Amino acid sequence: MTALTLSTAAAPGLRADAIVIGVAKGAQGPVVAPGAEAVDKAYDGKLAGVLETLGASGAEGELTKLPAPAGFKAPLVVAVGLGAEPDDKDADAGYDAEALRKAAGVAARALTGSRKAAFALPVDGPGAIGAISEGILLGAYSFDTYKGGAQDAKNAKAKNGKAPLAEAALLGGKPRDAAHKGALARAVAVSEELNRARDLINMPPNDLTPAVFAGIAQTAAKEHGLKVQVLDDKALAKGGYGGILGVGGGSAATPRLVKLSYRHPKAEKHLAFVGKGITYDSGGISLKPAGHNETMKCDMSGAAAVFAAVVAAARLGLEVNVTGWLALAENMPSGSAVRPGDVLRMYSGKTVEVLNTDAEGRLVLADALWAASQESPDAIVDVATLTGAMMLALGSRTFGVMANDDAFRSAVYEAAEEVGEPAWPMPLPEHLRKGMDSTVADIANMGERMGGGLVAGLFLREFVGEGITWAHLDIAGPAFNEGGPFGYTPKGGTGSAVRTLVRLAELTAAGDLG
């Protein structure tokens, strides 16, 4: 990843390939943001006018390049839009963390192939340091393992033949300030793990099978002092995990259930994160139609997010116990695949009539949720690319939040918004539960078509232990970006929900989450 440093150096004398500055959208035109005073001075205070002449407005995501002024050791100035200028009537107003994150991401991506860049964006405290750092590290991400004949990611290059930005100096950052150093260290830990999740999501399914994913988790556990337990197909059969076995029964790549445990000696609270890990989803016997299969390697994004969040919690040393459950299977059609009409006996003992084998994520999650419930955690949060219905409701950039407790649902939503992950609270209407009644089993895996995302949430609720607070994040929309990159979000796997989970763990450790 891009190497980050905090620097008090002045922009003119810093040796770099580019100086990145912020420009905001003011009432009368573009406004040069704080942090770029030295650059503006070198343009005789007319930098805003020069940028406007070049077509810049300060709009979010906008990027303008211009030659650096005389006397600068860097040859290039990169002006990146921050969106609306803060209200100067509000004494506490500053640039929003997400605006800084996005601007830094846009600039980092534009500087692919550069050795070093100096970021002179507005810094008014450690929060800004963290946001800019995350934006750089996430925006510079690229997945190049399979390009150019490279045998490993270290030797790979980006699509245009250039490596990601190698180094970034954060001007205005104080190298000796504990809060600034802490914000940078947190950003590095979270971003590295989020990018690891992106790598997993982007891996082709012939290389990332359930067994391989489990092996990666075992390696990470050893590296970061986590306890890990892996149940293979034989152990799953012995334990009665009918949901995971049923979904994985049609594939030659056998399923796994991975339990990752981070424990802090002073922790008083315990969170359980449960992730859907369908390493490839063909739909099974209920085969997906043409055009819907090509990105189904991303159906393990929930498990990737959980994996990354548990490791990040360990790296940050959070004073909370966190257990991650990765429900891993490949959903394929074959003579041994589960069929519509089959009845599965789940780990909880409940029976499920399978009406559609493409509604498989809820089946593996059901077993993992019940397993997580047996430890009586203070709360469970599951993450899954679960339903197309949620994409229809909220689009491709927002995930839905459902819960069995209104206050907890609000807390999860607020945590997501705080870290810059668009989310929206969704209900669990009781009248939709009846649609899953089965004449031959305790419940069916399908219900009413309308409100399908909410129906899935109601199904999952059936497998949460009594009295345990639970939330469900349906990340079907934002987990995989099929369009062009934007902000700090790349094309492909995004690592959606990682930062929300980490924030929930931080809030719990601080005693601010009930």
Architecture overview:
- With 514 residues, the chain is an alpha/beta fold.
- It has helices at residues 37-42, 47-53, 97-110, 126-139, 178-202, 210-224, 233-239, 242-248, 301-316, 361-373, 388-394, 406-419, 452-461, 498-509; strands at residues 3-7, 18-26, 29-32, 63-67, 76-84, 116-120, 167-171, 227-231, 256-262, 270-281, 321-331, 343-345, 351-353, 379-384, 399-403, 423-425, 443-444, 469-474, 480-481, 492-493.
- The strands form four sheets. An eight-stranded mixed sheet has the order 8-9-11-10-14-18-15-16, with helices on both faces.
- Helix 4 packs parallel to helix 5 (178-202).
- It is elongated, with a radius of gyration of 24 Å.
- The relative contact order is 0.11.
The total count of strands amounts to: 20
In percent terms, what proportion of residues is strand? 15-25%
* Oligomer kind: single chain
Give the structural class: alpha/beta
> What is the share of helical residues?
25-40%
How widely separated are the two ends? 36 Å
What is the approximate shape?
Answer: elongated
Poorly predicted runs: none
What's the rounded overall pLDDT mean? 95
Q: Count the helices. How many?
A: 14
Strand order of the largest sheet: 8-9-11-10-14-18-15-16
| Biggest sheet features | 8 strands, mixed
- Cα-atom radius of gyration: 24 Å
Question: What would you say about this model in short?
Answer:
The chain is built from 14 helices and 20 strands. The chain is elongated and about 80 Å long.
List the SSEs and their pairings:
Layout: E1 3-7, E2 18-26, E3 29-32, H1 37-42, H2 47-53, E4 63-67, E5 76-84, H3 97-110, E6 116-120, H4 126-139, E7 167-171, H5 178-202, H6 210-224, E8 227-231, H7 233-239, H8 242-248, E9 256-262, E10 270-281, H9 301-316, E11 321-331, E12 343-345, E13 351-353, H10 361-373, E14 379-384, H11 388-394, E15 399-403, H12 406-419, E16 423-425, E17 443-444, H13 452-461, E18 469-474, E19 480-481, E20 492-493, H14 498-509
Parallel strand pairs: 1-7, 2-5, 2-6, 6-7, 10-11, 10-14, 13-17, 14-18, 15-16
Antiparallel strand pairs: 2-3, 4-5, 8-9, 9-11, 12-13, 15-18, 19-20
Helix pairs in contact: 3-4, 4-5, 5-9, 6-9, 8-10, 9-14, 12-14
